[in-house]
Specification:
about 525 residues; mainly alpha; ABC transporter involved in vitamin B12 uptake, BtuC; 3 domains; transmembrane helix
Length: about 525
């Protein structure tokens, strides 16, 4: 009997709460509070629907209904009975809310999310509730903090409670102020600033000022780390773009002005693979890496066999010929693909960011590209230092006549070396397709920077290319906030020119027979 009475009381409360949604804004606010206290398993769904504008009133029955689907037909579900039926939009009236209700709904949804099984959802909920003045919410956070098992969520709850104490207590405790001084949450900083502004001469105001100074110091260091990361990210792109050129220009001595277009071919290969695998975007990027290497590598071998091999020892003609090839490749892409830029979709595992603190996040796509750059460098280094092809490449670059006398087929080595450098350029195009739009002019933006990296690092030295690329990337990002992007590039170029005047062979000059050759 008691169970039936309890169920009937709960049902009546639910009916009354839902009915209030048809009333004034004050009635709707009361309905939100009542629904929170009822504890129905669909409460969060209903409140989210109200926030999104998906709750309606059926004009005929005056029942509150939830929009279930608009296609292939307009389908709604009654909140209380759960009955689903088809309707037309003209028979329904949307339940309207104002800004105050929107704020109340967000707080209510966050409060419900505090008991979610997902720790990330709980953490997001706690952060959204920081600074909420509701005393009941403070009590709820205090009780939940004792049960919380995740350290990040528990720490966030501590900060949220400290914010409430600093904002609402007439004389907040020293511990609460110090807790906020160790936090980088924006609400914590705002609460400390308000406390300091209320009475800067008081002990609490002075302690708040000290905590604010601690926060500013942490934010400053976070800015330094972010600049370093952006610099290394840009540097990894420069290394990927230049490492293929380090082989064709550094090892073979060929000024390949079509290197940028080989990067572009790699990017378009990625675009093409995604068109062939539209349902497997994440896998398509991995498939694009060997595909881009093969496409650009074969194009490089074709260029070397058809043009470059007739121009060895004639740098001016080589420069002009490869420049002409670059224009031909651009026009071929414009004619057979499109003159417009194409967007390559980023896979899910490369989206989002790694949040180190509320003021410092590192994007996953740039983290992966930095790791990818180091992997490509390591593989190329092993290939040139630990394989027969690498030995022959170094032999031909040091003394072509002696290598041929020892039985090395220099023509074959030249073709494979140029193909290797071109293939690496194609792999760089795969990485660049995840950062920028793919277009016929993609490679032109990187050809000059690639030559700068190779010359600055030391012609023919892979370690020099790596160090130079990362160094120039960091230098650009350090200068950009004060000098601007264009002036930063100019300053870096001037520095390299002056550096080459003093050290013509770059950071890591070749020694021994390599230098003599």
């Amino acid at each position: 009997m008691l169970l039936c009475l309890s169920f009937g009381s709960r049902a009546a409360t639910l009916d009354e709460s839902v009915a209030l949604l048809n009333g004034s804004f004050n009635d709707k606010s009361t309905a939100v509070q009542n629904l929170m206290s009822v504890g129905h398993d669909q409460t969060s769904v209903w409140l989210q629907a109200l926030l999104d504008g998906n709750l309606y009133t059926d004009k005929a029955s005056n029942q509150v209904v939830l929009l279930v689907a608009e296609q292939p037909e307009f389908s709604v579900q009654e909140l209380v009975s759960g009955r689903t039926y088809s309707s037309s939009k003209s028979d329904l009236k949307r339940i309207m809310i104002n800004n105050a209700l929107r704020k109340e709904l967000r707080v209510a949804l966050s409060s419900l999310a505090l008991t979610s099984a997902d720790s990330q959802v709980r953490l997001t909920a706690v952060r959204s509730l920081m600074g909420s003045p509701d005393p009941a919410l403070t009590e709820r956070l205090t009780s939940l903090q004792l049960q919380e098992t995740n350290s990040d969520v528990r720490d966030a709850m501590t900060v949220a409670l400290a914010i409430n104490e600093v904002r609402n207590a007439s004389k907040p405790g020293r511990n609460a102020i110090e807790v906020l001084g160790d936090s980088l949450e924006p609400e914590a900083r705002n609460a400390l600033q308000q406390l300091h502004d209320r009475n800067p001469a008081a002990a609490e105001g002075k302690l708040a000022a000290k905590s604010l100074a601690n926060i500013e110091r942490k934010i400053l260091w976070s800015g330094y780390i972010e600049t370093l990361f952006f610099g290394l990210s840009l540097g990894s792109v420069l290394v990927l773009a230049a490492i293929g050129l380090a082989i064709t220009f550094g090892v073979m001595g060929i000024i390949n002005m079509a290197h940028g277009e080989l990067i572009m071919l790699g990017a378009y290969t990625t675009y093409g693979i995604q068109l062939l695998m539209p349902d497997h975007i994440g896998l398509s990027v991995l498939v694009s890496i060997p595909a881009a290497f093969v496409v650009s590598g074969l194009m490089g071998i074709l260029i070397e066999r058809s043009v470059i091999r007739f121009l060895y020892g004639r740098p001016l003609e080589t420069l002009l010929a490869t420049f002409g090839i670059s224009l031909i490749l651009q026009q071929l892409v414009r004619t057979f693909v499109s003159p417009q830029n194409r967007t390559v979709q980023t896979p899910d595992w490369m989206t989002g960011s790694l949040e180190l603190s509320p003021v410092l996040s590192l994007t996953w796509n740039r983290i992966y590209i930095l790791i990818f750059c180091l992997m490509v460098f390591a593989l190329l280094f092993v290939l040139l230092k630990r394989t027969r092809l690498g030995l022959q490449v170094r032999a031909v670059s040091q003394n072509r006549a002696m290598a041929r006398a020892m039985g090395v087929r220099s023509a074959r080595v030249d073709a494979l070396t140029f193909g290797l450098g071109s293939g690496i350029a194609g792999v760089a195009g795969v990485a660049l397709s995840q950062l920028t739009n793919v277009g016929p002019n993609l490679g032109q933006a990187y050809i000059i920077d690639s030559f700068m990296v190779v010359v600055f690092g030391g012609v023919g030295n892979l370690w020099g290319t790596l160090v130079a690329g990362l160094s120039l990337g960091v230098a650009n990002k350090v200068l950009e906030p004060t000098a601007g992007a264009v002036l930063a590039k100019i300053l870096v170029l001037v520095f390299i020119i002056l550096f080459i005047q003093k050290f013509p062979r770059g950071l890591f000059p070749q020694k021994g027979r390599s230098a003599e050759g």
